[in-house]
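Feature request disguised as a bug report, sorry. It would help if multi-protein outputs had a clear separator. Right now it looks like this:
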Amino acid sequence: MKHFESNNSRKIKRQDISLLGMLIYLIPVVGFFPSLWTLYRREGSREQLRISRLSITLALTWCGGYILLGSGASTSEFFALRLQILNSFVTSGYFVVSAWLIIRTVKGKQQKVPGFSQFAEKVLDKYLS
């Protein structure tokens, strides 16, 4: 009986570690690096790889938008304020979507963002596999 309990507790610990890893992947900006490492090594469950792809896609999209809007705001006098406001919306959206995905992960629901999830599966899976 004790042997059965230890196997059961090991299984629960593995699930907790897997959940913790997925939560780390979804942390804005910081989660990009462990996600990239997971995809580089090609280790982890199918769900971890899917979340890693989504995390990288969200981070690169945000970074690209942040750089483009920031450089546009610094070069344009007329649109500077508008581009800075749009930049703050993009940044806020990235953090809100990441928080929403973390909450969905904790609840055990599927982590999908319309458009981004499909793009991440097609593009990153093509170039990183």
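(second protein starts here, but nothing in the output says so)
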Amino acid sequence: MAWNELTAEPRRHEDTTEQPPGLAGLRLFGAFRLEGTEGGIAVPANEQRLLAYLGLHKRAPRSVVAGTLWPDVTEEHAQGSLRTTLWRLRRVPYPAVGSDGDTLYLADGVSVDVDDFTRAALSLTCSAHDPGDPLPPPGLLARGELLPGWDEEWICSERERLRQLRLHALESLSARHTRRGCYALALEAALTCVAIEPLRESAHCAVVTVHLAESNVVEAIRHYEAFRRLLRAELGIEPSARLAGMIPHRARGAARTPSPSAATPERHDRPE
């Protein structure tokens, strides 16, 4: 059986025949999900891995796909497993994978949530932006982890890349909200970043920036001191001069010095 019979044919000419409903999208954040226009589509494990790989890489030679998805077997066995997986994908009611010669690719019209996230995150982190640009929809940057529980090396590297992109995007989102005076949203983005990576100093800088923008100096000091204690306990170091310099010097010193009411009372007992 030809490879193009196992997968969706590449679009080579205008087709005027009626086409079946397309795929709504491939969801890789959180649990794997392939969605059609009428709801979720059940996909077996190996087929999930192939679709996830193409969803992240878009297109790749068959030999690369086979070697990546079945790294612990011979090349012949890996190619056979790939052929079987592609054959089983024919049971999916919509064409999900296309082939063009030696290359496999995700079929046209299949949207991937990772692409939506990446575009939004990169637009936020781009320095050349218009302050009037619309912000991404709420919750777009607060999605779950990429395919949790999948421990393949190609997944782990992508997971870390997307995690770092999310952290930078959340910090940028917090800064934009702060400039617009949307302090609650700014704080939400900054604290989400802190929750993802508690030892990330730039995230704590974002939190302190929001508090100071609202003139909530006490809140800024409280957060700074909590982070300072965390760094000492976990790494035995102090916050950087940049973060320390954000806190007014006198206020910072007062935060570490017990107030007179909290100090130990002076004794006035006379010696006998």
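Even a blank line would do. Unrelated, but nice: The radius of gyration is 27 Å.
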